[in-house]
Write a structure and sequence with these properties.
Order of helices and strands: HEHHEHHHEEHEEHHEHHEHEEHHH
Low-confidence stretches: 1-28, 382-413
Structural class: alpha/beta
Oligomer: single chain
Number of helices: 15
Helix content: 40-55%
Radius of gyration: 21 Å
């Protein structure tokens, strides 16, 4: 049924073309699947970690024992977002029912270890950094934890250079693809191996070779991939999504640009603008897809909140700038972002438009829904598995997926 809901949502979003201005609905307890997604962006991961610290504290105000891994059924992350995902979802060595790190501890991790990860230690024409410290600290933090041992479902994209295909490390896939049950440290190193910055990561798991680079090659914003994983394996009619970015500089239109002049640009001209242009285009299309998917329902069947800094200070935009001033500036940016208005994309113009409440107020609403949902589950209507929320309940066999997929195609073809 979830797959039918997906196609109805997508179809309605495209037809109606607007987006809902309603506040977050109250949860229909037991029927809402909760998703957290975190973008890539190197040291700029401090921004979403700071935002998550606010949410973590909001949940702890309602439940002193709150742990983000207990409140989100799925956490998706790419590159630095994949590292944050693993740190939230890895069981603590002191208490295996709790996450190894809080968001506040993750911010401290970046500030302490960022200068060692991005230390310009590799000379020559290869990657800017040798990756040795990142590899060592990741293995030290995550130890022998494997994908199957996370406290909640995780979805971490990477890209295989040898096969020229994305690889999605996902708990949902383990039944049919057990070779994906790799060490979380190998998964994090893979999704963080940004071309030109860090070397590709090679490892073997269950007899299968992986030749991996940064998940940002396939999905810098992992929200779409994470939702796709959920919809393939979940029968839940409602979805609550919190998607966190790592900040982008505001684009200033060039008043002197003329397409007739650009027609004569050389390869060097195009190379100069291509990276930023393609990145912005990919990000805009991803946001368009997600805004379309969650628009048009009154009341909405699902709720989607995107929090990102769209006017990032140029001084903080370098993903490998690990000066003390830069990292403190990123943390301050995350705190200021909480006081900014919620923005959503206009599906006709692709412009971002502000709404009445701040990001902090929206997160407070999310905290209310998350808390209500968890309390309902703890009362026994839905049974978790050792602190692992709904893992067994959410998984369905692939033959059922194929049946629903065929049904949806017949509706719209």
């Amino acid at each position: 049924m979830a797959h039918f809901v997906f196609f109805v949502l997508l179809f309605a979003g495209q037809v109606l073309g607007g987006f809902s201005t309603q506040k977050l609905p109250q949860s229909d307890s037991g029927n809402t699947l909760t998703i957290l997604s975190i973008d890539g962006g190197g040291i700029k991961g401090i921004i979403p970690a700071t935002v998550l610290d606010y949410l973590d504290k909001a949940l702890k105000a309602r439940d002193p024992n709150a742990d983000l891994a207990h409140y989100f059924d799925v956490i998706g992350g790419t590159s630095t977002g994949g590292l944050i995902t693993a740190m939230l979802a890895t069981p603590s060595p002191h208490d295996p029912t709790r996450g190894a790190f809080t968001p506040a501890q993750i911010v401290d991790f970046y500030k302490l270890n960022g200068p060692h990860i991005f230390n310009s230690s590799r000379p020559g024409n290869g990657p800017q950094f040798d990756g040795e410290f990142l590899h060592n600290i990741t293995r030290q933090l995550l130890k022998d934890t494997r994908l199957s041992q996370t406290l909640t479902n995780v979805v971490i994209p990477a890209f295989d250079l040898k096969r020229q295909k994305p690889v999605i490390f996902s708990n949902y896939k383990l039944e049919d693809a057990p070779y994906l049950n790799a060490l979380l440290s190998d998964i994090c190193i893979s999704t963080s191996a940004a071309p030109t910055q860090l070397p590709p990561h090679y490892f073997v798991n269950d007899g299968v070779e992986f030749n991996m680079v940064d998940g940002g090659v396939a999905a810098g914003n992992p929200t779409q991939a994470t939702i796709s994983e959920v919809l393939q394996h979940s029968e839940y009619p409602k979805i609550l999504v919190l998607s966190l970015g790592t900040g982008t500089e505001k684009y200033v239109e060039n008043p002197d640009f003329d397409a007739r002049l650009a027609a004569n640009w050389t390869i060097l001209n195009w190379a100069f603008v291509a990276n930023d242009m393609l990145g912005r285009a990919s990000s805009a299309i991803t946001e368009y897809y997600l805004a379309s998917l969650f628009s048009g329902f009154q009341p909405p069947q699902s709720t989607y909140l995107r929090i990102d800094e769209h006017d990032l200070n140029h001084d903080f935009s370098n993903s490998v700038n690990v000066t003390k001033e830069n990292m403190e500036g990123l943390e301050k940016t995350g705190k200021q972002l909480l006081q900014e208005k919620v923005v959503k994309m206009n599906l006709d113009t692709f412009n971002l438009e502000e709404f009445g409440e701040t990001n902090a107020e929206a997160l407070d609403r999310f905290a209310d829904i998350l808390y209500e949902e968890r309390q309902h589950r703890l009362k026994g209507k839905y049974v978790g598995n050792g602190g692992r929320p709904l893992l067994e309940t959410l998984r369905v066999r692939s033959d059922k997926y194929q049946e629903n997929w065929a049904f949806a195609k017949n509706l719209f073809i």
